[in-house]
Amino acid sequence: MTKKKIQLKYYILGLIFLIIACAGPFEKEYPKFLTVDLNNNSGLTRTDELISIDISSIEENHTDFNPEAFIVLNGSKELASQANDLNKDGSYDKVFFLTDLNTNEQQSMMIHYNPEGKQERIYGKRTQAEISHKVGGKFVNRVYEGGTFKNVESLHVPPEHTDHSWYIRYEGPGWESDKVGYRFYLDWRNATDIFGKKTTDMVLQNVGQDGFDSYHEMSDWGMDILKVGNSLGIGTIAMWIADSAQRVEKTDSMACEIISNGVIQSAVKTNYYGWQINNNTYDLSSVLSINAGSRLTKCDLAINNNPENLCTGLVKLDSTEVITAPANDHEWSYFATYGKQSLNNDKLGMAILYKNSDLEKITEDKNSHVMVLKPTEGALTYYFTAAWELERNGITSKEDFINYLDETVKNLSNPVSVGIK
Description:
3 domains; Immunoglobulin-like; 11% helix
């Protein structure tokens, strides 16, 4: 055997031993596996694509799958993943992981798992959801005096609470990705606002800790950048009644819950009991979710008693341009505004993304641009998004914002296909 062949032999043996050494720990800790096949047919590159898989579909062929002990591998690369118990019933519902997909690319990856035990993996946190209220004080004339803020998993809003009670930190729940943050006022206003971020770090845990609304002033992380007033802000839930968008103002009670505070997806659920509007009463449920690497908030609504419509929209502000999607055959479309409409007097793009089949009309009232939508069997889904020019590596022109929206609509209309083996 020649010297070159001997060197090649030992090189191959060394490579095999290296592969075994790398795979060994995974095989020992996660001895079972399944294959996930992905197909991106949108014609666009997808970065930080969140793949969602129902655990029930995994269990059809892998009945011993354990969502508390698994990893996702693309070749030898481990992908950030999480499992969610969205119903909070003690049983996990979904598995999520992040991947990048090139144009028209197909990928196969492995989910390795251990049927027993719990093995937590540590990934960088790229989303967050929280709600925090004061404890140790008391309400005096509907203002909470004393006490300190404490993060909680859920809150049934006390009847004493109203706007500017200083009871809930930054006045409601917040959710964020590494690109943008949002909140809504958990009181009679029920309107959604934007936290513009200049960092990719998670920041909400520090916002409003001084007990005041200092987040309206610029800080190292960013600031509250939207003036909501009596409008729909961005993506606020409402109903179109008598030529006006009417928010969820009068209810019997409200309960808010953080149903996911994960590394790559976080979500807030709110139940509005006894929403009284237009001589009718409804129970409404809202789930607001955000993914790592995304500006989008997904709004999933469920309502009883078959309302004629639900609506949402954007605040009407001066010095902004309205942008509507070009005619196309996509399932999804958008309505947007762009211009110097932030509280910092710099450029901000905002948009509502909706299914064409859900749209009844686009209209306006004195405060808001309004998209009137039709629920199907009490269910409705739409998205909203914000792009601030001071965001790290952000969108700084109307043209780039339009390109972002066009690509987002195309991706929503052509989801990645997922197959499990």
